[in-house]
């Protein structure tokens, strides 16, 4: 009942209640993003959501325009305090997770949930997904989730997938509340922002 109906209802209600605050944040943050390098305010990334459906995920742009896509060896996103691709404003947005604020629009559209696995990249075809990756897309991806709350970027991509499957198997209102509270704690303490894996590669 919770997984199939109440969770989505809560997403809509909380999204609507938060929207005035979200609009104010967007209005406040947008000039800082734009005036640093006169680039686009938003980064609209293609991601895979529920059942592998492709959608555009909204984020505040935190990197310089035309920055190269650098990945760790496990294909996870490279993060570092010294990453030269990230703007000064972008560092603040990432540290506070404010770059994710526009995703409340994705929640209202039904592309995402407030809580769930982070959405997949579209570079990997659905046919090549393994059992963990397939289970992750049986629920809507989230703005935050089990990994973001407890580990953020401190664990390998494979472990994140395993943790996501644990969440899928144990979705409940209590677990979602715990994830929200832990996310707030993790963000406030600026814990695990960057990956421990310094091995990386650049892709065009």
Question: What's the topology here?
Answer:
Layout: H1 2-37, E1 42-48, E2 54-60, E3 69-72, H2 88-96, H3 103-109, E4 113-115, E5 120-121, H4 131-136, E6 142-144, H5 146-150, H6 157-169, H7 173-188, E7 200-203
Parallel strand pairs: 4-6
Antiparallel strand pairs: 1-2, 1-5, 3-7
Helix pairs in contact: 1-3
Helix % is: 40-55%
Number of distinct helices = 7
Strand content: 5-15%
Q: What is the mean pLDDT?
A: 89
Principal-axes geometry comes out as globular
Gyration radius, in Å: 16 Å
| Poorly predicted tracts of residues | 196-204
The SSE string, one letter per element, is: HEEEHHEEHEHHHE
Largest sheet: 3 strands, antiparallel
Strands of the widest sheet, in order across it, are 2-1-5
Number of domains: 1
Which structural class matches the secondary elements? Answer: alpha+beta
**Measured distance between first and last alpha carbons:** 44 Å
Number of beta strands: 7
Characterization of the model:
This protein is an alpha+beta fold and 204 residues long. The chain has one domain. Helices cover 45% and strands 15% of the residues. It is built from seven helices and seven strands. It has helices spanning 2-37, 88-96, 103-109, 131-136, 146-150, 157-169, 173-188, and strands spanning 42-48, 54-60, 69-72, 113-115, 120-121, 142-144, 200-203. The protein has a three-stranded antiparallel β-sheet. Strand 1 (42-48) and strand 2 (54-60) form a beta hairpin. Helix 1 runs antiparallel to helix 3 (103-109). The longest helix is centred in the first third of the chain and has 36 residues, at 2-37. Residues 196-204 have low confidence and may be disordered.
């Amino acid at each position: 009942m919770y997984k199939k109906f109440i969770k989505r209802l809560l997403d809509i209600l909380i999204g609507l209640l938060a929207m005035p605050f979200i609009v104010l944040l967007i209005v406040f943050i947008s000039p800082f993003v734009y005036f640093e390098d006169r680039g686009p305010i938003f980064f609209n990334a293609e991601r895979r959501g529920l059942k592998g459906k492709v959608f555009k995920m909204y984020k505040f742009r935190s990197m310089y325009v035309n920055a190269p896509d650098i990945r760790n060896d496990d294909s996870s996103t490279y993060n570092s305090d010294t990453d030269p691709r990230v703007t000064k404003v972008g560092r603040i947005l990432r540290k506070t997770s404010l770059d994710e604020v526009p995703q409340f629009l994705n929640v209202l559209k039904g592309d995402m949930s407030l809580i769930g696995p982070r959405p997949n990249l579209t570079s990997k075809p659905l046919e090549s997904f393994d059992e963990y990756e397939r289970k992750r897309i049986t629920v809507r991806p989230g703005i935050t989730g089990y990994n973001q709350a407890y580990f953020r970027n401190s664990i390998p991509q494979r472990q994140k997938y395993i943790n996501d499957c644990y969440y899928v198997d144990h979705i409940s209102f209590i677990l979602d509340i715990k994830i929200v509270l832990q996310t707030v704690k993790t963000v406030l303490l600026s814990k695990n922002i960057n990956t421990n894996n310094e091995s990386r590669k650049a892709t065009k």
